[in-house]
Amino acid sequence: MALLSAPTKIAGAVSRLAGGIREDLDAAIERDPATSSRVEMALASPGLHAIWTHRVAHRLWTSGHKLPARLLSQAARAATGVEIHPGATIGRRFFIDHGMGVVIGETAEVGDDVMLYHGVTLGGRSMEPVKRHPTLGDGVTVGAGAKVLGNIVLGHGAQVGANAVVTKDVPSMAVATGIPAKIRMPEAGIDPQQALYDEPALWI
User: What superfamily would CATH give domain 8-202?
Assistant: First the structure.
């Protein structure tokens, strides 16, 4: 039975890996109108290359192989322009559009279905070895060049405008724009997704 279980475990791991890759590809295609091809996205998206490498580096990091994890993350940084610390926790269907200049710190936590544009920083505000980077809930979008700093929480569905500087919590479904970021909620009765079209700073 032990001999049979090893191939079964490997097959299960390969199946999960393939499913995760397809999920990432489909999420990327849904958010990027410039392509409709899985093959093109897989070959030409630095954001996907960065997150796929991070998933391997994070596994190494959490299993105690910290130096190889850091070296792998640095190789990904050189290749993609995206720096994700291997200690960061990233959810499913994560997508970084364009990729270049994104930095995600060690204690950042990112939920499912999150999207970042280029130049985004999920940075820290402490030099102490504590939780010092942001937590992003599911469905968060962060616009180009935005800086989200410190041990703060962006609630589910929150939207951060391009070039905003966010240092305080953002409630679920709220919009944060400006320097320092000001927070507003969509008007009652208006679909939050549709309301984003009224906020030019969210777009690049």
Answer: Hexapeptide repeat proteins (2.160.10.10)
Q: What is the pLDDT of residues 110-124, one digit of tens each?
A: 999 999 999 999 999
Please state, in angstroms and rounded to a whole number, the distance separating the CA atoms of residues 69 and 4: 31
Exposure string over 154-169, b if 16+ CB within 10 A, otherwise e: bbbbbbbbbbbbbeeb
User: Is pLDDT at 185 greater than 80 in this prediction?
Assistant: yes
Q: How many other β-carbons are positioned within 10 Å of the β-carbon of residue 131?
A: 15
Sequence letter at residue 131 = K
Domain residue spans in the chain?
8-202
Q: How far apart are CA 88 and CA 185, in angstroms?
A: 29
List strands edge to edge, sheet with 147-149.
83-84, 103-104, 121-123, 147-149, 165-166
Prediction pTM value: 0.87
Q: Whole-angstrom Cα distance, residue 165 to residue 148?
A: 6
Count of CB atoms situated within 10 Å of the CB of 29: 18
Cβ-defined contacts of 167-173 (< 8 Å, 24+):
167/125, 172/137
On the question of pLDDT at 1 being above 50, the answer is: no
Listed residue (164, 50, 29) closest to 104, CA to CA: 50
Residue 148, token pair as written in the block = 């989200």
